[in-house]
Every structure is written in C-alpha cells, then in structure tokens.
Amino acid sequence: MLYLIGLGLGDEKDITIKGLEAVKNADLVFLESYTSVLGISRESLSVFYGKEVLEADREMTEGAEEILSLAKTKNVAFLVVGDPFSATTHADLILRARKEGIPVQVIHNASILNAAGKCGLQLYRFGETVSLVFFTDNWKPDSFYDKIARNRASGLHTLCLLDIQMKEPNLESLARGKVVYEPPRIMTISQAIEQLLYVEHSRKQNILDEEKLFCVGLARIGHATECIAYGSLQQLARYSFGPPPHSLIIPGELHFLEAEHLESFRITKENT
Amino acid sequence: MLYLIGLGLGDEKDITIKGLEAVKNADLVFLESYTSVLGISRESLSVFYGKEVLEADREMTEGAEEILSLAKTKNVAFLVVGDPFSATTHADLILRARKEGIPVQVIHNASILNAAGKCGLQLYRFGETVSLVFFTDNWKPDSFYDKIARNRASGLHTLCLLDIQMKEPNLESLARGKVVYEPPRIMTISQAIEQLLYVEHSRKQNILDEEKLFCVGLARIGHATECIAYGSLQQLARYSFGPPPHSLIIPGELHFLEAEHLESFRITKENT
C-alpha cells in the first residue's frame, strides 16, 4: 500500500489526523525533499511521529522503483509538503503505482495554491499560475510574461511560484560524466522581481511597472512566522521578508473587499 | 481570539493536529454550514471533539456580530469545510475581526481547489474557476460560458464549482415580509451539464459539444466514497455519481501525463 500524505505548509502539526494515523501504521516513511520546503527539519518529524523519516530525493522520487517495490509488500507513507497534487512528479508516482497494481491512498492538505488566499485575494479570481525559475547566463525563459499579461488583460490575479533547487546537478560536471550537486537555493521575492523587471525591460510591453504595479509578497505562508506585504514591485524588492519559501502575486482587477484586505498589508514607512 | 479552522473535505479525521488542538482549547465551536458540505454530520464532529458544535448558518455568518462579540472575550473556533479562504464571506469575517482588534488565527486545510488535482490534471494549468448557480425561470446567468471559452482558447482547464443552497429564503414569501426557507439543494453534475448545454444551445459558439467535449466529473472528493469519471458531457450527464457534492472540470489542452491519468477514469460500457 502506498500512502501519499500532504503535510500542509508549516510544521509537524499541520498533518491531518488521517495522515498521522497512516504514518503511524506505515512500515516505512519517506519525505519528498526537493519540490518544496517545510518550516521544520526531517528530524523534527521523526521525533513527532516516533519513527524514522527517510529522505526521498529527486533521483529516488522520479526513479520511483525503490518506493514502488517496497509498497508491493509493505505500507509505505510518502510525505509531501503541501498537497500531494502540487507537483507533476507525484501524479506520475500514483500512475505508476496503479499500473503495478499497488493500492494508493491520497491524504490531502493545504497547499500554497489555496493558502495564497490569505492575503485577501479571492481564489476563484486567479488565472493561470506561473513558475519562475532561476535565470542562467544562457537560459532566461520568459513565457511567464505572456501568461501574466493574459491574466491581467482578463482582470485575473497571477500567483508566481518561485524556484526551489534543493539538489540540482552541476551541468559542467555532468557533461564530464560526474554527478556533483549545486548548493541548494530558493528564490526570494527580491530575486523574482529582478527577473520580472529584466524581462519587462527587454519586452517593453509595460505589463510590469516597478513603481505603479502593486503586488503581494508572501513569505512562509502557514508557518508561525509568515509575512504578507503589499506594495509596488520596487518596495517589495527592498522589503525584509525573512527566509524563504516566498511567493509573489500580481493582482488583476480588485473587488472592493479584496482592495480593503490588501490595504491591511500595505508597506508604509513605519513597517519597511 | 477567533480561530478559523479548515476541516478539509471528508470526515472528522481530515482536521489537522493544529486545528484539533485549537478546537480542544476553544470555549465555543461553530460550524459554518451553508457554503459547503462535509461527508459527516455536525453531531459526529461533536462526538469526535467531545464538545458541542453549534451551527453557524448564513445569517449568523454574514451578520457576524454574535461571533465577533463572543470572540472578544472567549476563544471561538469557527470551522469551515475545506479551507477558510474558499469563500468570500470568511475573508470578510477576518477583516471585520481585525478591525475590532480581535486576534485571528487561520488554520489551513485542503479545498476542492487543490484536491481537484486528484483527477490528474495539473493545478497550475487551470484558468479562472467558474461557479454555476441554479437557473430560475427568469434568472439564467451565463457569464461562465465566456470564461470557459477564454480558458479553452488559452489551453487551460476550467474547474466548475456547483451551486450549494442550504438555506435560501423563498423570494415570494420574502416579498410578503415573511422569511420561509427553501428546502436545501445541491447541484449535481447532471444538472450542471443541462445548464451548460442550455447556454451552448442559445449562444451557439460551439464551445461545449455534448458528444465531442470530454470532461471530468468529480463526486465527494476526499470522502471515502469519492468518484471520478472522464467522458463526454452526454456520458457524464447519465453517469451514476451518487450523492453530492459534485464538481465538473472542462479540460483545456492535455499534457501526455494528464491524458494518461484521465484515461484511467474513462467511462466504458463496463463501468457505466
């Protein structure tokens, strides 16, 4: 049996009762550790559950053979930060398990896709979500720009998910046949805005005005130290959000209740 | 103190540990009972928590005075099916609490907006969500049609949330100054498709072809008896999904992994 269990966003107590019961009954517990970041360590989860939590890194998760082979004869709990359906790779794992005749149970939880509503923007007024990945010297994908433009033209909000690279292989080493991992890095709001403005300056369609476009920065949503701020891109880029994970929302048209809610997070001289 | 606590989608065990702790510490516990439906009764929650769970109906929730007044001196837990940010009215409650200086803590959970990913469609490839309300003889709002058309033109999926009317006043009685409530009704996939096709037949833009457009019906997602089926609108309208809550997804362009996942839910002669 394979349990895919969402952990929610903050700490060990964001798991559901159903999820915790499945962990307690599991013979083996894995934590998927590369598509998202929880507010606490894997070791803290082990202490809370009273059983060892093993790391499932990118190779193990995407390869999946070891997990599926274990799930044929044992109860395997596969823990995912947020909701199990927040990343393509988990949907793939479920499909492969089903094909091999392994029973799968999914235990849902909050993800940033719904918890983003905390800033007061209505979730049903969001358009397509975009992902911003770290630019490199020769790879600066900018398809997010057209998606943001399209959402804004329809009056819709855009949630920007920011890159999390926990265990990326160094490409130069890989080309020499050697697997060396880059140090982990997680994109901040400030870095995201730098990349947004880089694309605005090259595309010049006046979608992202750094002074006039007011956006929402979200840091550590669901953690005890979560932080939400509303201001111009320029203000947000300078604001002290503290450690990641961060997300950014580019609002569309605002309903008066949304506007009122956002005002309560407005950056002022006092809170900068 | 006001706790807004998401209950998730299925039963009493979908609450998080953090949520359950807040309920246990609360002086008063209310269940918001009109924007959504859990798989179990309010009484079952009372038994599970070992304390009385009071009903917060539409008037009490939207009025909010009683809840806010209690939260000034007591710990009040306000339970919401799904996530607290799935309905505008909860965002309004938070705003009003903050204005009155009442501390608010939100405890997130899964909502249909992310659990819809269970059918295998990627959540970041959804466009604007639409809500279908029950048509009446003289009120047949059809703005969803343009939104679905816009999403499909961009290759995006559309989640259709179906109407839940738990305690609607009868308008004729209201006009005579008397409040009489209609019996509760929750829209099924079959009723939703009937309304979609009604609008297609009057607008004739060929967005919703009842034989050629393949969609996803979702019933009781997160409940033990959940049901997902993939087929033409005609097939879905006839399929036995069992009791509500139901939702419907109108897919946009499919990634091959999405298509593979949907095929596993395909309606065949055997499972009709």
Automatic annotation (TrEMBL), chains A, B:
Pathway named in the protein's UniProt entry: Protein modification; peptidyl-diphthamide biosynthesis
Domain of life where this protein originates: Eukaryota
CDD domains on file: DHP5_DphB
Enzyme class: transferase
Reactions listed under catalytic activity: 2-[(3S)-amino-3-carboxypropyl]-L-histidyl-[translation elongation factor 2] + 4 S-adenosyl-L-methionine = diphthine methyl ester-[translation elongation factor 2] + 4 S-adenosyl-L-homocysteine + 3 H(+)
Tetrapyrrole methylase domain location: 1-166
UniProt entry keywords in alphabetical sequence: Methyltransferase, S-adenosyl-L-methionine, Transferase
GO BP terms in the entry: methylation; protein histidyl modification to diphthamide
Signal peptide residue numbers: none
EC number(s) given by UniProt: 2.1.1.314
Residues the entry annotates as binding S-adenosyl-L-methionine: 9, 83, 111-112, 162, 246
GO molecular function: diphthine methyl ester synthase activity
Entry annotated with the keyword Methyltransferase: yes
Protein task: S-adenosyl-L-methionine-dependent methyltransferase that catalyzes four methylations of the modified target histidine residue in translation elongation factor 2 (EF-2), to form an intermediate called diphthine methyl ester. The four successive methylation reactions represent the second step of diphthamide biosynthesis.
Similarity comment: Belongs to the diphthine synthase family.
Annotated protein name in UniProt: diphthine methyl ester synthase
Source organism per UniProt: Galdieria yellowstonensis
